[in-house]
Amino acid sequence: MRLPWNGLPYLKKSGSISAKFIFLSLITPTLAQSFSPSSSWRKPFITNSPADQVDKAGAALASALRVLNPETAQYSMFTFQFVARFENIDFGLITGVLLSDNSNFLEPGTLFYEMARFDYLTGQTKYQEQLEAYFSKVINKNPHFSHPRFILVSLPHALIYGYAAIQAFRAYKDNIFLTYAESSWAFGWNYTISQEQADSRHTPVKNLTFADSNLCARASLAGGTFRDTDTRSGLVTAAATGLSAALAEATNNQAYLGAAKLSFQFISKQLISPDRLVETAMDATNCDPVVVFAYPYNSGFFLEGLSMLNGSTPPDEAQLLPDMVLAATTTTKSVWNTEQGIIQSTADPGAGFAIGSGGDSQLVRGLTSVFERTNKSDLRSYVKSYLAVQLLPQTIYNVFTIESCTLSH
């Protein structure tokens, strides 16, 4: 069985806390691109009213909040299922429950993002006080939101809280949330390779030597963010790009803009496949890619950050955004799309980083960011149609209930 880079067994979440009930949120360059929804897509339009969308999104959040421990701002119980096999013997489906707090540090951060997103889209402050309390509880116990997972700290998991905090800052204009976002970013930046470190082939946070740039497509490793805090691991990912870009957009701080551009350059040179999908990770010690499927959350993180750069990338790379949107939404290039255009990913619907099934929230957030920011009407219309497909009728609270509010504007 092929495992993702975090080496976890096949997990399938069950129960009401799954983030798929909260929100939804390539193709090589061609001379003439067609931003037309596929004729095989199921219902690429939204028919329910904005009021109905808001009601469903609010109900989804209420469902998730009912099982959140208000004392810790974490989930005290996490249900999981996996198929147990050993030496080709199938032992059947095993269900278990993790009873300790912080058993899944990722999902509360994702929930915080959606609470703030809901208020931002509806012009409310319904969740502001709750979020102030929850962020305070989490960061007081986990400085910079750096909760250890299996001893090590997963950088993508820690950065999820930064994404949530900057969304809360957008919603409420309260500087405490900006402080939280900057704290998360600073932790991630400490594990991001600078140009000086790339040139010297060393970083103080790792006990290893980087590969020579001649082995890495003659491109620098500067801008790559390490996957975790293991001093012996050289794996770098795309997870930090969007947070740098979001802070740059929110603050006009050139330091964040420079960081976003550096990460963009690294990913565009080192992690984007010929099919215009963002690969899972690469090893900075030898520049080898991690050989797993390209998961949608990687492309989602990158699309979100790229859309926020607002044309500040070099002109010869301006075509990358529409190319990557097409790649992420077409069956021929991305393995997570069904013929009906529905995201059915092997990535965890909460935010990636574990195997499960369902729509992937980071891809939806990335595409929603493209929808909100692009000035290309054909691209905007195409993204809207693709996201509308994800509004599945068979679920009460589905993967798109909150982001569907965006498409009504």
Rg calculated over all Cα atoms: 20 Å
The helix content is: 40-55%
**Span between N and C termini?**
44 Å
CATH class: Mainly Alpha
What's the overall average pLDDT, rounded? 78
List low-pLDDT spans. 1-32, 79-102, 348-358, 394-400
The name of the CATH architecture is: Alpha/alpha barrel
Q: Could you state the order of secondary-structure elements as H and E?
A: EHEEEEHHEEHHHEEHHEHHEEHH
Task: Estimate the strand proportion.
Answer: 5-15%
Largest sheet geometry: 3 strands, antiparallel
SS element count, helices: 12
Describe the structure.
The protein is of the alpha+beta class and 409 residues long. It has one domain: Alpha/alpha barrel (Glycosyltransferase). The protein has 12 helices and 12 strands. Strands 1-4-5 form a 3-stranded antiparallel sheet, with no helix packed on it. It has a 3-stranded antiparallel sheet with strand order 8-9-10, with helices on one face. A hairpin with a 2-residue loop joins β4 (78-86) and β5. α2 runs parallel beside α4 (155-172) and α9 packs antiparallel against α10 (320-329). It is globular, with a radius of gyration of 20 Å. Residues 1-32, 79-102, 348-358 and 394-400 have low confidence and may be disordered.
